[in-house]
Amino acid sequence: xxxxxxxxxxxxxxxxxxxxxxxxxxxxxxGDTIYLRGQVAQDLDTRENVGVGDPVAQTHKVMQxxxxxxxxxxxxxxxxxxxxxxxxxxxxxxxxxxxxxxxxKGVHPCCTGxxxxxxxxxxxxxxxxxxxxxxQED
Length: 138
Prior knowledge:
Layout: E1 4-10, H1 11-14, E2 23-30, E3 33-36, H2 55-72, E4 80-87, H3 93-103, E5 110-115, E6 126-133
Parallel strand pairs: 4-5
Antiparallel strand pairs: 1-2, 2-3, 3-6, 4-6
Helix pairs in contact: 2-3
């Protein structure tokens, strides 16, 4: 079975201000595993940025994107096994984790948190990528 690629796009459309031409997608379903691209506070349909300057609002949008993509892949939030959180400022950690926690209550994924110099656009302050595994039927 070939991998399913969800919401394919090209970076020349997504980042017109940059000299890029890469074919990517928002998610890949490989067998029972769902791999999500790092999600930022950007509407997946309109590419409009959400919550500029507000790490809590950005985290809500990021987690909503993750929920939407998981649903499109046949998954659910409770299937998340790993999250990687990228912050541009350590001072955002508590607010971001508190907000993220409302979406993963009872899920208990493995998490890795990193503080980075920057994300792909300066208005983004948090990015989260997720991996999920669809349970085998009993």
